[in-house]
Specification:
- The chain is of the alpha/beta class and 640 residues long.
- It has a domain of 274 residues: Rossmann fold (3-Layer(aba) Sandwich).
- The protein is built from 16 helices and 26 strands.
- Strands 1, 2, 3, 4, 5, 6, 7, 8 and 9 form a 9-stranded mixed sheet that branches.
- Helix 2 links the parallel strand 4 and strand 5.
- Helix 1 crosses helix 16.
- The longest helix has 19 residues.
- Pfam families: DNA_methylase (PF00145).
């Protein structure tokens, strides 16, 4: 133990430290006891990945990472399926001792790779020689560290903790037997449990059930180690709600960009209810749904006369942007003495207003809410239809998926997806565990975001083309194709129009000459724009409002890091980010990390045990449950 500036420091070392979730938590741990303040001093964090080590130091603000491959030669050959390079060698106990700065750490933490023990990997593959070699790091790393401390320090760490996935109790039983035998050999009291919820330990916004081994040397720490007091868990909305808007990389950093997903994937997310996953797609009534365009907030906005105006945008005009370009002008003097029939629509079941000499919507009530008009018909019944395999197919048309039922529910494809594939999480509930392969096709990596204001559906006559042989839709005061049915399929054109009239130009060819009367009635003033309807496999970012009024979108990598309780800002002031890796690799690093806040709370009980041992306390009463007591061993079969 070191004593500096009235602070008692307990040394700690981390094996397989990754990007530093455990290290960052230990550096935040502190306990006041007996008039003194106890904290950790990190000796090192060992990992074979130089990019992970580099980011470890960026996150912790300390240069304590050590790049070291703890594979033995046979493990290297089995994992990489080739001989190691000429400059590679097995690490020895002396190498570990040097990494420990030639000190026996008070606390040793190990988080060996769990890929081969996780339920995300098929059982057959996990039993292969390649993954068995990777799994053996749980034993070989701990064995090498204990050997270094015993041989060169003539002592052993007072407390050892090992973290892994709960499925290690079934897929790694032989490994656990070797670890327990090794710890007992050195005289440790051992607790083995697979039901630790790090979400409750750290007060996180996600459930994260983990397997933990806690070993205590009774010679150095004769008193027990207490279990951390559980904290109330937060919802996923509590964590990511205060963060910058997703996609705002200026404030949230490069990891806060939204993934570019295929159009069909965005559609699937929008159709899955909050809290559901891909299985809910089987319950969707596709024929009753349609996609409509909803302008951003502010479109068609009318500014108040006595308040400041909104920002003036480059595309100023009603409906052209989200900038306010209309105003509620009180200078017309339309008060009690003004006309009451201006732009008035009369109900059909009441007497009409006085017919004036200048009937029109701006002078008299010349509009009526006509109930005789039929309801707007739906789209072609076969649009986007999925045909059942056991029914007759609809008529085969010459058009695409948007016009005919040319998709089939093929029962011959037996797709086995993870239960959370395409899962959309509810905003007001605790998030599910962050996995290393956290993509929407494999985990519940999307959220039902309620921060997009719910807006009522648009008027049903928007962009509607009326039939010449049917009643017209109601004439409204806003005569615009975007607000009322102001188009008609006119059959009266019985003479050859001018060349170019109603002309549709090709997207990939030069445009025709722009004339002074350039509109669709006088020239080729239309274009076949391929952009509005994306192809199913086209990638991009689209905002589709789901039926619950929220935006079902993927979680950004930055938001996943916040759910893992990483700091919102790095010590150098930048938003949290990882350097030297792709976004997919960053998600893997984040998913493999120990949550910082959970590591801090577990570090606190380790420090408390060390402080009581320094004070000569062998026993103390506490309401908290005992974590490590003589003879304790529990292995509940909790799988996640």
């Amino acid at each position: 133990m070191l004593l500096r500036d009235n602070i008692h420091y307990k040394t700690a070392a981390v094996l397989f430290g990754g990007i530093g979730g455990e290290s960052a938590g230990l550096l935040r741990s502190q306990v006041e006891y007996g008039g003194g303040l106890y904290r950790f001093k990190l000796l090192c964090s060992i990992d074979s990945d130089p990019v992970a080590c580099r980011n470890h130091d960026l996150i912790t603000g300390e240069q304590t990472s050590v790049v070291m491959d703890l594979f033995r030669r046979w493990q290297y050959k089995a994992w990489h399926k080739q001989e190691p390079p000429a400059n590679w060698r097995e690490m020895t106990a002396w190498d570990i001792w040097l990494a420990f700065k030639q000190q026996v750490p008070f606390f040793l933490f190990s988080s060996p790779p769990c890929k081969g023990l996780s339920g995300l990997l098929p059982k057959e593959k996990s039993e292969s020689e390649q993954y068995q070699a990777l799994n053996f790091l749980t034993v070989s790393g701990l064995e090498l560290a204990l050997q270094a401390c015993d041989e060169y320090g003539d002592a052993i760490p007072a407390i050892i903790q090992l973290e892994n996935v709960p499925r290690i109790t079934s897929r790694g039983k032989p490994l656990l037997k070797q670890i327990k035998k090794l710890l007992k050999k050195f005289g440790y009291e051992v607790s083995i449990r697979a039901d630790h919820n790090l979400g409750e330990i750290g007060g996180l916004g996600q459930n994260r059930v983990r397997f933990l081994i806690m070993a205590r040397d009774p010679k150095q720490v004769p008193n027990v180690i207490y279990y951390p007091a559980p904290k109330p868990m937060r919802t996923i909305g509590d964590v990511i709600g205060p963060l910058p808007t997703p996609g705002d990389t200026e404030v949230g950093g490069p990891l806060h960009k939204l993934p570019r997903l295929q159009w069909k994937t965005w559609m699937r997310l929008a159709l899955i209810p909050a809290g559901g996953d891909w299985r809910d797609l089987q319950k969707v009534d596709y024929q009753s749904l349609r996609i409509i365009h909803e302008p951003r907030a502010g479109a068609y906005g009318v500014a108040e006369w006595d308040k400041p105006s909104g920002a003036v945008t480059g595309t100023a005009g009603p409906g052209k942007s989200n900038g306010v370009t209309a105003v509620s002008d009180p200078r017309l003097g339309l008060g009690e003495s003004g006309k009451t029939n201006i732009l008035r629509i009369q109900p059909a079941d009441q007497p009409g207003m006085c017919v004036t000499g200048v009937p029109g919507p701006f002078q008299g009530a010349a509009c009526i809410a006509d109930p005789a008009l039929p309801e707007h018909p739906g789209r072609h019944p076969a649009k986007y239809r999925i045909v059942c395999a056991d029914e007759a197919a609809p008529c085969v048309t010459g058009s695409r998926l948007g016009s005919g039922g040319i998709a089939i529910s093929d029962s011959s494809v037996n797709t086995k997806l993870m239960p959370d594939s395409f899962g959309v999480q509810a905003w007001d509930e605790t998030a599910k565990t962050i996995r290393a392969a956290n993509r929407i096709m494999q985990a519940a990596g999307s959220v039902s975001d309620p921060r997009i204001h719910d807006r009522p559906g648009r008027y049903t006559d928007k962009f509607r083309v009326q039939a010449a042989d049917g009643p017209a839709a109601t004439v409204t005061g806003t005569t615009d194709v975007q607000s009322g049915a102001q188009l008609i399929a006119d059959p009266t054109v019985n003479r050859p129009p001018r060349a170019g009239t109603m002309g549709v130009q090709q997207w990939n060819e030069p445009g025709k000459t722009v004339i002074g009367s350039a509109d669709v009635h006088a020239s080729a003033a239309a274009v076949a724009d391929p952009r509005p309807v994306p192809a199913d496999n086209e990638q991009g970012i689209w905002m589709i409002i789901a039926q619950d009024g929220t935006w079902h979108r993927p979680l950004t990598t930055y938001e996943l890091a916040m759910l893992q309780s990483f700091p919102q800002f790095l010590p150098d002031g930048r938003p949290f980010q990882l350097e030297g890796c792709s976004d997919a690799k960053a998600r893997e690093y984040i998913g493999n990390a120990v949550p910082r806040d959970a590591a801090e709370e577990m570090g606190n009980v380790v420090l408390l045990a060390g402080a009581e041992a320094d004070a000569g306390i062998n026993f103390s009463l506490s309401w908290d449950p005992v974590w490590v007591a003589p003879g304790e061993e529990r292995q509940p079969a909790v799988l996640h």
